[in-house]
Amino acid sequence: MDWFDESRLAHLLALLGFAAAFFYFIWKGRRGTQLYIRPIDALARMDDAVGRAAEMGRPLLFAPGLGSLTDPVTVAALAILSRVAHNGARLFTRTLVPNYEPLTWPVAQEVVRQSYLRAGHPDDFDPDDVVYLTSRNFTYAAATAGMMMREKTATNFFVGHFYSESLILAETGAATGALQIAGTDSVEQIPFFITTCDATMIGEEVFAASALVSDDPVSRSVVKAGDLCKVIILGIIAAGLAAAILLDWGPAGALGQKLAGILSAFRQGDWL
Amino acid sequence: MKDSITYRLPFAVMLVLGVFMMVQYYIPASPVVSARDMLLQWKQPLNGFIILLAIGGVAAVHVRKVWKQQKRWGYSVVTLVSMFAMIAAGMVGGMEEGSVFSDWFKYLISPIEATMFSLLAFFVASAAFRAFRARSTAATILLVSAAVVMLALIPSVANHIPIIAQLSDFILKYPNTAAKRAILIGISLGAISVALKTIFGVDRTLLERSR
User: Are residues A61 and A13 located together in one domain of the fold?
Assistant: First the structure.
């Protein structure tokens, strides 16, 4: 019986390396070490955006995307929703959450309910503000756009996984004059959000923001693990680039070949 | 004690299953593969219950609206009638080709969705107009590269001015792919980080109620 798939060794080593960095920064966070984490513009504007809605006396809208709870970006979106709903509850501002995924809906409802509880206004929570709409994307877009138009939401958040309906949502929001903050891991939809929203979290910024919204230093320190791994990946890319350049350059051809051989063997797991 | 169980039990289940699903990826042994397949099969009935929950949720919201005669309650009546008519049509007449359910889907729902989809053309135009105003260096680069890529898609331009097609090819193949891959690497690392945070209980958003 085969107890280890050798072709996946490189994956395993990469995962173990990341996990080591993850637990190391958690340990540092627990010790109370203050780590510098780069600011994220969209995150900085989030609290102001909630304040704006409160001043205007209009609700907030938070669309957690079309992803399921099995998508990490949806989990990150719910963490951000927790902060938005909490700030909204403190300022007596409703947070409307239209859901596409039946599984995300009850969780989003609990997240918002707990946010109201933490803000000290549990009675202000209206379960009808966090609704399940439909699991068809253009129908979802129509229903959410209708919600923006009818409720005249002051601020719209689009955080999660989106498909082609992203532009319908963001353009409708722009037409209503709402301040809009977006964040997605859908590479194809990022340009649409950048052109139509006031601030956009690009790719991994959503995951970083989900950690930074927490006041817990341990949760925040995890962002550093991702940063360290990116530095290592950049190093590997630079080594690959050097190997490719050296291969074509006579005097250092042998060195380039050796480097390319190491990288290729690591990728395929041949060096076992 | 009660709090401890309601929080620790779901957390323990999440930890064990999360670690198992991570580890099984590297183990091709048949007992592990069977256990993984069984766990994935358990998702199917769960999905059925979730759909029921969703139908109940939609019905409850709209029945409340109609009952209290809230603003625009008429639309809620339309939603409820449509939803239950569709369910009844599917349950009574089946869902195969030529059934009432299939016809309603084909001739009512599909055209409505196609209408929403077609709106995208206008939204793309208005978004492009906003994005292509050369207000900054970045916006100017965006404008020029978008113009090149769009021109290259016109056959007469691509045939008569080959440099436009070559330039478009270069933009799509190198800067565009490089940027996409950079974003994807970041997304993958972020996703792993959120997964580990959730599995090991650092992020407890999903267990809000249990705490």
Answer: no
A157 plus A122 within the same structural domain = yes
Candidate from A15, A111, A206 with C-beta closest to B205 = A111
User: A108 and A235 share a domain?
Assistant: no
> What is the number of structural domains in chain A?
2
User: DSSP string spanning A61-115?
Assistant: EEE--S--TTSHHHHHHHHHHHHHHHHHHHTT--EEEEES-TTHHHHHHHHHHHH
Question: Residue B172 has what pLDDT?
Answer: 94
98-137 of B, contacting A, C-beta below 8 A: 109, 112-113, 116-117, 119-120, 123-124, 126-128, 130-131
Question: A69, B206: Cβ pair inside 8 Å?
Answer: yes
State whether A145 and A259 are in the same domain. no
Same domain? For A26 and A52 the reply is no
Find the domain containing A230 and state its range. 6-34+220-268
For A189-211, write each residue's pLDDT tens digit. 998 999 899 999 999 999 999 98
Q: What residues 28-67 of chain A have any CB closer than 8 A to a CB of chain B? A: none
Report yes or no: B163 at the A interface, CB cutoff 8 Å: no
| Tokens linked to B114 | 């196609």
**Spatial CA neighbour of A82 closest among A214, A216, A221:** A214
pLDDT tens for residues B129-173? 877 776 788 888 888 998 999 999 999 988 899 999 999 999 999
- Whole-structure pTM value: 0.90
